[in-house]
C-alpha cells in the first residue's frame, strides 16, 4: 500500500535552502537534495501548512518573508478562512492557511497539517492511479479535489486540477521541466500520471 512518508525538494543550493526552512518552519520535515534539473514556470504542486488561527498565518508569513520568500498572495480572508501564499527562494510554493476567520488569541506556533497538493491534468485519472496504488480516498469532490487517507503519515496528500491549483496559489498555469519534488513512501518507486516521482522512503539520518 502506498503511503506518503517524506517529501524531498530538489534545490540548486542546499545550504541556502536549509537556512531558509530552518528560519521559516523548523518543525516541518523538509528534505533537500541538490539538483540542477531544468524547470520553468509552475512546477505543478504546492505545500500547504494548516494552522489554528490567523495569527499563526501572519507569523509564518512574516518568518518566510524575513528569510527571503516572496509574496504571491498577501494574507486575506475568504469564504472558507484566512490564507497567504508565498514562494520560497528555491521556488517552492507554500500556502499558509486556517479555516478560522477571527483571531481568538496570539499565534500558537502550532501546525495542524502539512498537505502536499499535486496539480493533476485529469483528477479522476490520477485518483484512480493512486487508488490502484493502495491509497484510500478520504474526501472527494468529483473532478475538482481529492484528499487521500494517510492516518499513519506525517503528511496529507491531495489532488487539485492543475489549472485550479495554479489559480489558487496565484501563478500562471504554464510550466515545464522538472517538478523538483520526490515523494517517499511505501509502495515506491513509481511515477504518477502527472510525472511526480515516488521512491521508497528512507529513514532520516540520526545525529
Write structural notes for this entry.
- By secondary structure, the chain is α/β, with parallel strands linked by helices.
- The chain has one domain: 2,3-Dihydroxybiphenyl 1,2-Dioxygenase, domain 1, CATH 3.10.180.10.
- Helix content is about 20%, strand content about 40%.
- It has 4 helices and 15 strands.
- The protein has helices spanning about 15-25, 55-65, 125-130, 160-170; strands at about 5-10, 30-35, 40, 45-50, 70-75, 80-85, 95-100, 115-120, 135-140, 145-150, 155-160, 175, 180-185, 190, 195-200.
- The strands form 3 sheets. The chain has an 8-stranded mixed β-sheet with strand order 5-6-7-4-8-11-10-9.
- A hairpin with a 6-residue loop joins strand 10 and strand 11.
- The longest helix is centred in the N-terminal third of the chain and has 13 residues, at about 55-65.
- The chain is globular, with a radius of gyration of 16 Å.
- About 35% of the residues are buried.
- The mean pLDDT is about 95.
- This is Glyoxalase.
Amino acid at each position: 500500500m502506498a503511503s506518503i512518508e517524506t517529501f524531498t525538494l530538489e534545490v540548486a543550493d542546499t545550504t541556502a535552502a536549509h537556512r531558509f526552512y530552518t528560519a521559516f518552519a523548523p518543525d516541518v520535515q523538509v528534505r533537500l537534495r541538490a539538483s540542477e534539473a531544468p524547470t520553468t514556470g509552475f512546477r505543478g504542486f504546492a505545500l500547504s501548512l494548516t494552522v489554528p488561527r490567523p495569527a499563526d498565518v501572519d507569523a509564518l508569513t512574516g518568518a518566510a518573508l524575513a528569510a527571503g520568500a516572496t509574496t504571491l498572495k498577501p494574507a486575506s480572508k475568504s469564504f472558507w478562512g484566512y490564507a497567504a501564499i508565498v514562494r520560497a527562494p528555491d521556488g517552492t510554493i507554500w500556502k499558509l492557511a486556517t479555516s478560522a476567520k477571527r483571531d481568538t488569541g496570539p499565534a500558537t506556533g502550532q501546525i495542524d497539517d502539512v498537505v502536499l497538493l499535486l496539480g493533476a491534468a485529469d483528477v479522476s485519472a490520477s485518483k484512480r492511479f493512486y487508488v490502484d496504488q493502495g491509497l484510500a480516498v478520504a474526501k472527494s469532490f468529483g473532478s475538482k479535489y481529492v484528499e487521500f487517507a494517510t492516518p499513519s503519515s506525517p503528511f496529507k496528500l491531495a489532488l487539485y486540477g492543475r489549472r485550479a491549483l495554479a489559480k489558487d496559489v496565484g501563478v500562471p498555469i504554464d510550466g515545464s521541466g522538472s517538478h523538483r519534488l520526490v515523494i517517499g513512501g511505501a509502495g515506491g518507486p513509481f511515477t504518477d500520471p502527472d510525472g511526480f516521482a515516488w521512491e521508497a522512503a528512507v529513514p532520516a539520518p540520526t545525529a
